[in-house]
Amino acid sequence: LRYLTAGETHGPQLTAIIEGLPSNLELDFEALNFQLQRRQKGHGRGRRMQIETDTAQIVGGVRHGRTTGAPVALVVENKDWKHWTSVMNVEPIEGGDEAKRRVFRPRPGHADLNGGLKYNLKDLRNVLERSSARETAARVAVGAIARQLLGKFGIKVAGHVVSIGEVTAAAPNLPIDELIAVTEQSPVRVADKVAEQQMTELIDRMKAEGDTIGGVVECIVTGLPIGLGSHVQWDRKLDGRIAQAVMSINAFKGVEIGIGFEAGRTPGSKVHDEIMYSEERGFYRASNRLGGFEGGMTNGEPIVVRGVMKPIPTLYKPLASVDIDSKEPFTAQVERSDACAVPAASVVMEHVVAWEVANAFLEKFGGDSIEEIQANLDSYLRQIEAY
Ligand code: EPS
Fold first, then answer.
1. Which family does it belong to (predicted)?
2. Which of the 8 DSSP states describes residue 166?
3. Model confidence over 40-97: pLDDT tens digits?
4. How far apart are CA 135 and CA 112, in angstroms?
5. Is 327 in a helix, a strand, or coil?
6. Which of 42, 88, 329, 381, CA to CA, is 20 to 30 A from 218?
7. Pocket test for ligand 1, best of 79, 131, 134 (most atoms within 8 A of CB)
C-alpha cells in the first residue's frame, strides 16, 4: 500500500494516488467528506477555512461505490485558487515580481529559506506553496479511505487534544465511541469542559497578541489483532513507521508511544504491562503503558500515540530574518494565518496513523479482495485462539 500527493496550497487542487487497495471495499463517500470537514474545524483557524469547503472527488479505481483493485485517484479542489489563477499559472505570465507575488523574504520556522537554497529557487513561493499544511487535506482524504478499510475489520481510530500551550486536559478515560462523540462537540477537541474554556481563551489571547500557540495531540486505535508489524527488521516495526508518519505532519516536532518519554523517568517495574490470560479474552495486559507495542508489534492493547505541534510560524508579531536579494535584515511582514491549528492537527494525526495501521494490516493479511483478507484474518485469529 502506498500513496503520493501533489498540488500547491493556492493551486487548482490537491491530487492523491493510492496504490494497493484491495477490491470490493465499499466506500462511504459521506464519511470520507466528513473527515475532510473535521480537519477544517477548530477554534483558532484563520480566514482561509471560510473559503474552503473540502470534498474529495474520486477520479479513478472506484466503480458503483466499490474499489476495483486499481489505483484510487482522488482530488480535493482549492476554492481559493480563483484568487490566484495568474500567480499560480502553469504557463509563463507577463509582468514582474508584483504580478507573480514573488516571495524573497524567508519566514523563520517555515521551509522557505532551506527550500530556496536547496532547490536554487529565487522565488520562495515555489517552496511555500508546497510546504503549506494545506497538503494535509490530501492526506486526510487518503487516510479516510484507510480508516474505512480498517473499519470493515472492527478497527477504530480516535483523536483528541491533550494540551494547548500550558493548558492540559484531564485524561478522558472514555470508551472509544464516546471519546469520538464527545470530542467532536468540542471546538478544541477535548472532553474536559474546564480545559476547553481555558484553551479557547488562550487561543483568543494569542490571536489578539499577534502570536500563535502549539500543543500535544493523541491518537488511539482499538480492535487490533496481535502481531501487526514485526520485530525482525528495523523498517517493519510498526511503532517506528507510525512515528515517522506523525513526525511528517507539518509543524510536528516529537512523537511518543504510550507513556513515551516518561518511561525514561520511571523504574521498569512501573513501566511494563503485565501479561494476563482468561478464557474469554485470551492473552491480555493488566495495563497499557507501552501504548500497544512490544517489539514493534501490536500486542492487542489499543495503540496510543502522541505528537507535539510547534506554534504556527506565520506570526503577526514580526521575527527577524534576512532579505535574500539585498542580504539586509528585515522583520517579517504580516500574513494571513491560523493562531492555533492543534485541533485540526489531531484529525490529521488520526489519518496518518490509520494509514500506517492499514498498511501493516494488509501486509499481514494481504489479499487482493476484501473477502480474501477476511479469510486470512479469520484463519489467523483461529491460530491465535488455539495457541
Ligand atoms: C497555511 C497557511 C494558511 C492556512 C493553510 C496552511 O493558508 P493561506 O496562506 O492561504 O492563508 O489556511 O491551511 C489550509 C489551507 C488548510 O486547508 O489547512 C500554511 O502556510 O501552512
1. Belongs to the chorismate synthase family.
2. T
3. 999 999 888 989 899 999 999 999 999 999 999 999 999 999 999 999 999 998 888 8
4. 16
5. coil
6. 381
7. 134
